[in-house]
């Protein structure tokens, strides 16, 4: 289902759409308060954007530096060209350990690679330990937001879900009680699973260490208790030096949820004694995107989700309507790179209002890239023939003043005298909006009459 | 000062009174205004739909019509932004550049070029401004709520010079209305929903007259208002600034 159809379905429930919009707007306002409390906010954004610019211009060198230092620390480094290779590497590590049950903390990269279904097919049980991710996992759904995976779920609905899966009392929708139930259930998993997978928020080339940010401490619980810690990261997550962390950590959570910093910003430098630590560096289309100059900046993304919270379209269509691991404005410029045919609709799911670009902590020109993707998709033949035809007609009319004036006149005459021509169910404008009332004369006609030809 | 009046296609066809008010307003401030009769459209509907490559003829026509003026002024932020960002002509790039760098949305022209400090307009109503995205975030006609910077608004500065007028404060100062060019039909459901929410904010805060610098957003909001029979009137800012 394309975005427009999915969004229409989502919008059928008016009150739920209101609730979704207001919930996310509330997060956006929290972000505003946090950002406005920092007078140098715009300088921070510029600095972050420049650091990432440097990273993207020297990505190969930083990655090699990181690999060298990580290996020195005793971390095993793997390289994956695509999603499939990423999944295979992880499965092979699990096989070598003889493990069929693992815990996993939040990682959008593993979503992008469809790791969960792959492991399930291969007989491995994956438990997501981020509370939001656990909820969508129990509901057998993908996350609908990169930071707030189950933002589309109401607490009453979670109560019903937990009653079914975790045995909470029927009708209980108390967030504290539900969280406790989830915690108790997860604790058992943390204690028994020997392998933990985490994502990576930042990897430092200079030191070979990486940082994982969570609010629940679940990544730490998993990684510290397990014999094997596997961290998965997209190659763009690298930053040059430890001192740059300060810039990104200040921006990340303020942009995401309005908190000054994540509750846990955990540094993983080396495996503890007796533990194995692996890191999988994944390309999966990133180097292709790096090569597309007009879209390169999209790789600066630190996955804070601010662009989704601010996006008026996302708020009223929900994350699932974007049918891609990363939804919202940033997803709409990342997804076509992965598959132009499947995701040709996404760059059109925007009014180009530009709010995303201005909220983005690393200053990605998202709305300009949406515009560029539209051109790119059309040029590469990913546009419906009917649309191309109508655009050609439009172009012919608008580039010929005589034809334009004549069709304008005919159009207005038809609207005034035969409104059924436009006021019908084939006209999507008319479905829920009135058409403008056609005036007797156009401005051009008025001008000619009143001011004469000059 | 020779000013070329650019009246976008849909304003020409559906809202002649907006063109007339813009013309009269500019003349009141002493501009020598002409309206090139052969103008049509800025080409944005094609470009934003992914067909920028079909806009060459439109661009050529636009350069033909407007390259001789000192300034080009239009009552539509969105069309102005499109010209500013995307107007090119291989054969006459010099003239295209002149057009790109001398085109202004009406309120920014009044504020920045004519430096209007007072008006004689009288309009005793509660007025709510719809801050259109392309004018605001694109042309920087007003500060946007995302940026950590002091607020300002050129349209509101002008409206504050109108006697009797009271500005309405909204809950969400600069949320998009959902028009978005072809978005309004391609994503009909979301577009309408955004329009409803935008209008509701005005209803809730007591707007009598809804105004703005971009007739396209206003056309969409007016469609929603009329279908839902809400007690709000829609007028372009030029009509209010020109009100006696
Ligand atoms: S594009 Fe920017 S705002 Fe959106 S998730 Fe990435 S960093 Fe955050």
TrEMBL record, chain A:
Region (Disordered), start-end ranges: 433-454
Entry-linked PROSITE patterns: 4FE4S_FER_1, 4FE4S_FER_2
Protein name per Swiss-Prot or TrEMBL: 4Fe-4S ferredoxin
Pfam families named in the record: Fer4_8, LUD_dom, LutB_C
4Fe-4S ferredoxin-type domain boundaries: 291-321
A GO biological-process term: lactate metabolic process
InterPro entries registered for this protein in UniProt: 4Fe4S_Fe-S-bd, 4Fe4S_Fe_S_CS, FTHF_cligase-like_sf, Helical_ferredxn, LUD_dom, LutB/LldF, LutB_C, NagB/RpiA_transferase-like
Keyword list, A-Z: 4Fe-4S, Electron transport, Iron, Iron-sulfur, Metal-binding, Repeat, Transport
PANTHER family named in the record: LACTATE UTILIZATION PROTEIN B
TrEMBL record, chain B:
Entry GO MF terms: oxidoreductase activity
GO cellular component, one term: cytosol
Stretches assigned to the Cysteine-rich domain: 3-84, 127-221
Name this protein carries in UniProt: (Fe-S)-binding protein
Species of the source: Runella rosea
Top-level taxonomy: Bacteria, Pseudomonadati, Bacteroidota, Cytophagia, Cytophagales
């Amino acid at each position: 289902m394309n975005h427009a159809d999915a969004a229409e379905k989502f919008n059928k429930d008016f009150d739920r759409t209101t609730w979704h919009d207001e919930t996310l707007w509330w997060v956006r306002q929290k972000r505003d308060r946090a950002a406005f409390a920092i007078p140098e906010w715009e300088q921070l954004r510029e600095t972050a954007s420049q650091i990432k610019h440097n990273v993207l211009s020297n990505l190969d060198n930083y990655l090699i530096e990181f690999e060298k230092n990580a290996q020195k620390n005793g971390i095993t480094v793997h390289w994956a060209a695509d999603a499939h290779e990423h999944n295979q590497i992880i499965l092979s590590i699990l096989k070598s350990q003889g493990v069929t049950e693992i815990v996993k903390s939040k990682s959008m990269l593993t979503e992008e690679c469809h790791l969960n279904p792959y492991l399930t097919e291969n007989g491995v049980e994956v438990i997501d330990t981020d509370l939001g991710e656990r909820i969508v996992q129990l509901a057998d759904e993908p996350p609908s937001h990169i930071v707030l995976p189950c933002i589309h779920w109401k607490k009453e609905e979670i109560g019903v879900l937990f009653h079914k899966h975790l045995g909470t009392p029927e009708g209980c929708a108390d967030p504290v009680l539900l969280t406790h139930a989830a915690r108790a259930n997860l604790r058992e998993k943390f204690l028994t699973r020997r392998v933990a997978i985490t994502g990576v928020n930042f990897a430092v080339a200079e030191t070979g260490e990486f940082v994982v940010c969570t609010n629940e401490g679940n990544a730490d619980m998993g990684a510290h208790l397990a014999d094997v810690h596997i961290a998965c990261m997209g190659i763009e997550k690298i930053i040059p030096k430890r001192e740059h962390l300060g810039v990104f950590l200040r921006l990340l959570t303020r942009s995401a949820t309005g908190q000054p910093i994540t509750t846990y910003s955990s540094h993983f430098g080396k495996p503890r004694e007796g533990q194995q630590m692996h890191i999988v560096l994944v390309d999966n289309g990133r180097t292709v995107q790096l090569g597309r100059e007009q879209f390169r900046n999209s790789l600066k993304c630190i996955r804070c989700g601010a662009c989704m919270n601010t996006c008026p379209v996302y708020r009223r269509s929900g994350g699932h309507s974007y049918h891609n691991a990363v939804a919202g404005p940033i997803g709409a410029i990342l997804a076509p790179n992965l598959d132009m045919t499947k995701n040709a609709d996404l760059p059109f799911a925007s009014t180009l209002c530009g709010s995303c670009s201005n909220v983005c902590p690393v200053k990605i020109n998202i709305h300009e890239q949406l515009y560029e993707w539209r051109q790119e998709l059309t040029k590469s033949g990913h546009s419906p023939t009917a649309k191309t035809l109508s655009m050609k007609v439009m172009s012919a009319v608008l580039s010929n003043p005589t034809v334009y004036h004549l069709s304008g006149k005919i159009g207005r005459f038809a609207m005034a005298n035969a409104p059924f021509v436009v006021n019908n169910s084939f006209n999507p404008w008319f479905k829920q909006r009135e058409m403008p009332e056609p005036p007797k004369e156009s401005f051009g006609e008025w001008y000619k009459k009143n001011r004469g030809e000059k | 000062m020779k000013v070329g009046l650019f009246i976008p296609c849909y304003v020409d066809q559906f809202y002649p009174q907006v063109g007339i008010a813009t013309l009269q307003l500019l003349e009141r401030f002493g501009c020598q205004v002409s309206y090139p009769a052969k103008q049509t459209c800025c080409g944005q509907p094609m470009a934003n739909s992914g067909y920028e490559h079909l806009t060459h003829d439109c661009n050529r026509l636009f350069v033909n019509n407007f390259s001789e003026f000192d300034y080009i002024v239009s009552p539509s932020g969105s069309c102005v932004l499109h010209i500013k960002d995307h107007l090119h002509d291989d054969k006459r790039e010099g003239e295209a550049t002149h057009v790109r760098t001398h085109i202004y949305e009406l309120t920014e022209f009044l504020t920045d070029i004519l430096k209007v400090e007072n008006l004689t307009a009288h309009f005793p109503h509660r007025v709510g401004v719809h801050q259109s995205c392309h004018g605001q975030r694109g042309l920087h006609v007003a500060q946007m709520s995302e940026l950590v910077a002091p607020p300002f608004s050129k349209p509101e500065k002008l409206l504050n010079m109108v006697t009797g007028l009271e500005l309405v404060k909204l809950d969400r100062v600069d949320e998009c209305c959902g028009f978005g060019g072809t978005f309004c039909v391609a994503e009909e459901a979301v577009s309408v929903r955004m329009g409803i929410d935008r209008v509701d904010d005005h209803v809730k805060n007591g707007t009598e007259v809804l105004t703005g610098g971009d007739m396209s957003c206003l056309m969409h909001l007016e469609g929603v208002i009329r279908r839902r029979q809400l007690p709000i009137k829609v007028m372009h800012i030029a009509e209010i600034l020109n009100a006696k």
